[in-house]
Automatic annotation (TrEMBL):
It comes from the Bacteria. Keywords: Magnesium, Metal-binding, Transferase. This is Isoprenyl transferase. Catalyzes the condensation of isopentenyl diphosphate (IPP) with allylic pyrophosphates generating different type of terpenoids.
Length: 253
C-alpha cells in the first residue's frame, strides 16, 4: 500500500504562534529546492531563482536566531550539482560572496557562527575566500551555527570516514574492535554538531539527495510543496509547529 505524505498547504497563511517553551529542534537541516521552478514560473532565468533563494536564507536565519536554534545546516551545493551548466554553477559559486558582502555584519551582530561541511578545497578560490572570511569573522561568536553544505555529498563523506578508520588501524592507532557508531560519527564533517532533529525539503520533491544520510537516522522529516524562494518565516514556523506535534520515539514505544 502506498503511503501518502500529506503536504501542508501553503494557502492557509494565518499566522499560528510557535510555542517557544515547547521543545524546538536543536538542529534543523534544509534541502533548499525549487529555485529553478520559481524562476521558470515567472519567465525568469534560473539565476533569478537562486538570487531570490538567497533572500529566503536571510529570513530563515533571522528566525532561527530569534528562536535560539543551535544549528541550521543548509544544502547549498551538492557534489552532484557540478553536472549543471557551467554558467549556472559559476553563478551559484558567486552567491556566497554576494550573500556575505551584504550580510556578514548582520551575522556578526546576531552572534551567528558561519561554518561549512563538504569538500571545501574543490570550490573556486573566490568562493573559498568569501566563505573563509565569514568563518574567520564569526569565529568568536557563540550563537546559531549557520552551516553551509557546499560541495557536500553524504556517501563521499562516509567513504572518507571509512578510509580514515582503515588508515588509523594500519597505523595501529585503533583496532577493529574500536569501530563503532561513535568512531564513524567523529570522522564526519558534522562531528562537532548534534544530529539534525528536523529535516525540511521544499518544492514537493520527496527524496534525500545524498544529504546527511548517516546523521538523519532519527530526524523528523518535513516536506512542503512551497518553493524555496517562497519559503518564509511563516512557512518555517509551520514546519517547527509540525515538529512539535510529533512524538519522537527513537525506536522505543
Ligand atoms: C536547488 O534549486 C537550489 C540549489 C542547487 C542552489 C541553492 C543555493 C542557494 C539558495 C544560494 C546559496 C547561497 C549561499 C550563501 C551559500 P534548484 O535549482 O534545483 O531548483 P529546481 O529543482 O526548481 O530546478
Amino acid at each position: 500500500m502506498a503511503i501518502r505524505i500529506p503536504f501542508l498547504k501553503s494557502k492557509n497563511r494565518k499566522r499560528s504562534t510557535i510555542q517557544t517553551n515547547e521543545s524546538l529542534p536543536g538542529h534543523v537541516a534544509i534541502i533548499m529546492d525549487g529555485n529553478g521552478r520559481w524562476a521558470k514560473k515567472r519567465g525568469l532565468p534560473r539565476a533569478a531563482g537562486h538570487k531570490e533563494g538567497m533572500k529566503t536564507i536571510k529570513k530563515i536565519v533571522k528566525k532561527a536566531v530569534e528562536l535560539k536554534l543551535n544549528v541550521l545546516t543548509l544544502y547549498a551545493f551538492s557534489t552532484e550539482n557540478w553536472k549543471r551548466p557551467k554558467s549556472e554553477v559559476d553563478y551559484i559559486m558567486k552567491l556566497p560572496s554576494e550573500f556575505l558582502d551584504t550580510y556578514l555584519q548582520e551575522l556578526i551582530d546576531n552572534n551567528v557562527q558561519v561554518r561549512t561541511i563538504g569538500d571545501f578545497s574543490a570550490l573556486p578560490v573566490h568562493t573559498q575566500k568569501a566563505v573563509q572570511t565569514s568563518i574567520d569573522e564569526t569565529a568568536q561568536n557563540d550563537g546559531l551555527i549557520l552551516n553551509f553544505a557546499l560541495n557536500y555529498g553524504s556517501r563521499n563523506e562516509i567513504v572518507g570516514a571509512v578510509k580514515d578508520i582503515v588508515h588509523d588501524i594500519e597505523q595501529q592507532q585503533m583496532s577493529k574492535d574500536d569501530i563503532n557508531e561513535e568512531a564513524i560519527s567523529e570522522r564526519l564533517y558534522t562531528k562537532d554538531y548534534e544530529d539534525p532533529d528536523l529535516l525540511i525539503r521544499t518544492s514537493g520533491e520527496i527524496r534525500i539527495s545524498n544529504f546527511l544520510l548517516w546523521q538523519i537516522a532519527y530526524a523528523e522529516f518535513y516536506f512542503t510543496e512551497v518553493l524555496w524562494p517562497d519559503f518564509d518565516e511563516i512557512e518555517f514556523e509551520k514546519s517547527l509547529i509540525d515538529y512539535q506535534n510529533r512524538k519522537r520515539r527513537y525506536g522505543g514505544i
